[in-house]
Amino acid sequence: xxxxxxxxxxxxxxxxxxxxxxxxxxxxxxxxxxxxxxxxxxxxxxxxxxxxxxxxxxxxxxxxxxxxxxxxxxxxxxxxxxxxxxxxxxxxxxxxxxxxxxxxxxxxxxxxxxxxxxxxxxxxxxxxxxxxxxxxxxxxxxxxxxxxxxxxxxxxxxxxxxxxxxxxxxxxxxxxxxxxxxxxxxxxxxxxxxxxxxxxxxxxxxxxxxxxxxxxxxxxxxxxxxxxxxxxxxxxxxxxxxxxxxxxxxxxxxxxxxxxxxxxxxxxxxxxxxxxxxxxxxxxxxxxxxxxxxxxxxxxxxxxxxxxxxxxxxxxxxxxxxxxxxxxxxxxxxxxxxxxxxxxxxxxxxxxxxxxxxxxxxx
Length: 363
Hints:
There is one protein chain. The protein is α/β, with parallel strands linked by helices. It has two domains: about 10-175, Glutaredoxin (3-Layer(aba) Sandwich); about 265-360, Serine Threonine Protein Phosphatase 5, Tetratricopeptide repeat (Alpha Horseshoe). Helix content is about 50%, strand content about 10%. It is built from 13 helices and eight strands. Strands 2-5-4-3-7-8 form a six-stranded mixed sheet. A two-stranded antiparallel ribbon has the order 1-6. A hairpin with a 5-residue loop joins β7 and β8 (about 155-160). The longest helix has about 30 residues, at about 180-210. About 40% of the residues are buried.
């Protein structure tokens, strides 16, 4: 009833396929594991990570939409940093027979070495040697995920490939602080474990059918760790609005979020706004739409108008607020920014663009 559908910028969303490993044994600063793949389907084979060379080892899957979004970016980074060898390893596949055709279809958009994980005969996708020794060992349960490897054969950074531009550039220039990156990674992993525990509590609360119980879990989590409010605040807002049906409290809290914990967090601002104006969301009143518009405008400003998902949200907020000309103008920008993205990303944007055009012509 109060479950949320998030449509954030696709490049910032990953595909989860396995549960987080019970014990993380690999992290930033550790020697990189061996390359153990079934076969290379594109590019020069990389049988081992040679000392003195730098690598990007990235994990993806054919079924993962965000992976498809990040592939052209990896190609761009490979061209920009030829001193690195990029290796994309397909993991967690239900059927590896689809990998080669997928890579062939991607063509020049996937212009780096590509391999398939070494999955034991009769095993499942997450039984692959790379899935085990890299992803599971590092506590990574979502893709796409990239590992940067320095000249000493050690892991310098782990994260989403769309967020690796800065660490990649600094590593190339010899200015990357591995010790600081290790501390940050350990902090993020500790938070991820905490979030997994919280997710279990929230699941049980939601299954109870009691919105107040769900809200209580969120409140306690935010009280225990205020740093979680940017992540949990939008969900608390929608539970107040649609779960316990306290619109005045929801509006007050929503404005507090936009002016406080979320004010410099474009992703969270976008999430809050989309919860209100998403096509499948219940019709909102004027005050709540005004809140969505405020959040989306702030998110768009923070990202300098360059994020298609945020522009899409802002356009919908303008449309729901009755400003059809601004909705059309903003949606045209969203579609332009999303040019080249996969159909699953662009379909909704183009459908809404046509909707706004028709509405604008009727004015």
